[in-house]
């Protein structure tokens, strides 16, 4: 049976899961959750995820949320091989580090810069933009000397990070100084199955949503 996937198309973490499922070959039963209408607060959804966040999956009674946890679960359970999340302890630890960097630093600093403006009507803070650029620079350094986020093979870390980088790009943050990031970004866009359909066009959707909130 397909896995129920509760998500928002514009959300970067949700898009990361979509990419991972596509690469692994897992069928998802897509269920859009309208947060603005409180669809994540219904008794039915809270039974699946009491934290009422997206993305969330329900794999035949097993519920899981947080994008990185979902991605590594899908790869571990349904992957045809271990290439996306190798079992070698050091390689896996490096992948985990990149995933945690994305969630805790890169995406966090993106949110710290844009979300107060989008959701609280605040002004853009130049210091927060500097910190976002610092995070992108860290990632640029991580990519020095190899093709992907960890070594020379695609892993779940790339799928998570590209969902964030594409959102940063869609929001017109200047990435031109980060040559390694741009090289990697272009490679991901042209090699990951379903990239444009699952991530590229939905990053633009995020931009349109953000613009509508910022203009209010």
UniProtKB/TrEMBL annotation:
One of its GO terms (molecular function) is glutathione transferase activity. Transmembrane segments: none annotated. It comes from the Eukaryota. GO terms for biological process: glutathione metabolic process. Residues 88-211 form the GST C-terminal domain. Residues 1-82 form the GST N-terminal domain. InterPro entries: Glutathione-S-Trfase_C-like, Glutathione-S-Trfase_C_sf, Glutathione_S-Trfase, Glutathione_S-Trfase_N, GST_C, Thioredoxin-like_sf. Belongs to the GST superfamily. Homodimer. This is Uncharacterized protein. It comes from Pyrocoelia pectoralis.
């Amino acid at each position: 049976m397909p896995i129920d996937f509760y998500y928002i198309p514009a959300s970067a973490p949700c898009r990361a899961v979509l990419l991972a499922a596509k690469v692994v070959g897992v069928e998802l039963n897509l269920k859009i959750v309208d947060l603005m209408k409180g669809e994540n607060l219904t008794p039915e959804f809270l039974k699946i995820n009491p934290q009422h966040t997206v993305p969330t999956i329900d794999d035949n009674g097993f519920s899981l949320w947080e994008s990185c946890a979902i991605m590594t679960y899908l790869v571990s359970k349904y992957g045809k091989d271990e290439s996306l999340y190798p079992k070698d302890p050091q390689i896996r630890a490096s992948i985990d580090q990149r995933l945690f960097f994305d969630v805790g630093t890169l995406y966090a600093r993106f949110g710290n810069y844009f979300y107060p403006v989008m959701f609280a009507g605040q002004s853009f803070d130049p210091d927060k933009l500097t910190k976002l650029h610092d995070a992108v620079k860290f990632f640029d350094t991580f990519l020095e000397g190899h093709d992907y986020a960890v070594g020379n093979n695609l892993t779940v870390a790339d799928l998570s990070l590209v969902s964030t980088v594409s959102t940063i790009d869609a929001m017109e943050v200047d990435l031109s100084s980060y040559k390694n990031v741009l090289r990697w970004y272009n490679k991901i866009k042209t090699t990951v199955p379903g990239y444009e359909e699952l991530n590229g066009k939905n990053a633009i959707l995020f931009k349109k949503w953000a613009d509508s909130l910022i203009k209010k």
